[in-house]
Amino acid sequence: MATNASNTLYAALRTLPVQLPDQVTGGSVWYTVGAVVASLLVLEQLVYRTKKGHLPGPRWTIPIIGKFADSRSPTLEKYIESWKSGALSAVSVFNIFIVMSATNEYSRKIFNSPKYAEPCLVASAKQVLCPDNWVFLNGKAHVEYRRILNTLFTRKALSIYLQTQDAITRQHFARWLIESELSSKPGTLMNPIRDLNMVTSLRVFCGSHIPDHAIATITEKYWVITCALQLVNFPLAIPGTATYRAIQARKEAMVWLEAAAASSKRAMAEGKDVECLLDAWVMEINEARKQGKMDREFSDREMALVVLSFLFASQDAMSSGLIYFLQHLADHPDVLAKVREEQERVRGGDFERPTTLEMLDAMPYIKACVKETLRLRPPVTMVPYKATRPFPISEDYTVPKNTIIIPSLYPSVMDEEVYPEPEKFLPDRWLDPESPANANPQQYLVFGSGPHRCIGVEYVMMHMSVVGGVAACLLDWTHHVTPDSEKTQMIATIFPKDGCIVSFRPRKHD
Ligand code: HEM
Q: Buried b / exposed e across 298-314, counting CB within 10 Å, b at 16+?
């Protein structure tokens, strides 16, 4: 078993072919160096094989780099192959031992075992997001911080954000229509959706406490941060590296985010209306302190770091979700027709009326489409965790301490017993409360599970319903299908390999 790794290793070491000569001279230096290198390479293989135990995975690891080449250009297809190889499988990259789970049972066990494993962001994350960011908390400190942040996603708070989301979505659609008319060629959805999400997030989080030109700067710079936080990256912040550029971008963003927090505190003290997440938070803190339920302050920096963490957690996943959503609706005209029918009914034919929570409550069909799109193309296909101690994950395998252990989400949402015809976009599977999809909520791991489950679930459902719903009302769009439309590229999350090429026209109503 892997827990006996060190004993086995020492036993094996005693048998290594290392003989140091009495006098190290001339050619014998080379002999010694060669013997040491050879011993280290053998040792590397022994450590790998001992940790791996009986798990599927390559029997030998490529010296030093392991599966580095594969991890530089990850594809969903390669991951699907390794998930098929076993419920748990192992690889090594640069001597970092990695165990991946492919079943729902093991993935949920990892998510829900904070005693043994905790989230482990990529190596550069602490430098980019700052080591004192709340996202790096675990255990009791995390639970307490998260309890406060949960209050930012209540129905009351969401109804404030919704007005902003609806207004910004309409502004962007108006711009897309002008750009589409001016351009002779259809373009990909990647940048338009990223911009829409970034502006929406910054306005929802910071309201008017951040000027327009700062939103433009942060939106432009944020891509640099996304690139530095991909699964595999050179982690040293040396000028010229992605990590270095991301740190510079973060510093610039933090200046504006801290100023926004300070401005929100002033506005709330002056009795102004709550218009964004920062305002809602300031009011929440003031109220809790007044009632004696809280005895701490949140500094401008702490609040700015939370906004930064929300941007980091949401930007890429939300872009992936929305791009696939518009792609699926365009590829399934029957589904789009039903979405339009629901929109027309709920909005009473008035497409200019801003969306309200009550309207969304009356739109089960679009919510089913959102759930289905996130199931079929889950933006986050896996989440890296780290074993903080030997983790007895099954009766016959204990994950060694410090292993990167990755609960995979994709195989769960592709399980054909729970989701018959899993490769098809079938929103109706969510409409029957008795359907296997609804009867097995534990299978839907799109947002993770356990203490670190995504905090933004309701916000995501709302945002995707607004963008998809308003698009169905105001836009006609054509998806220009290419051989790469159904292939995926993995950035931090997944996207259509061709970026989803579309053209827009204003929708004509009868
Ligand atoms: C389609 C969009 C999104 C998807 C698919 C998604 C998915 C996920 C997943 C899989 C996790 C890891 C959960 C775990 O370890 O159990 C996560 C964590 C998180 N998400 Fe999301 N997310 C999305 C959007 C958002 C948004 C909009 C926000 C903020 C407003 C957000 C904030 C967070 C935060 C803060 C965490 C870490 C929570 C913690 O450690 O306590 N996410 N998300």
A: bebebbbbbbbbbbbbb
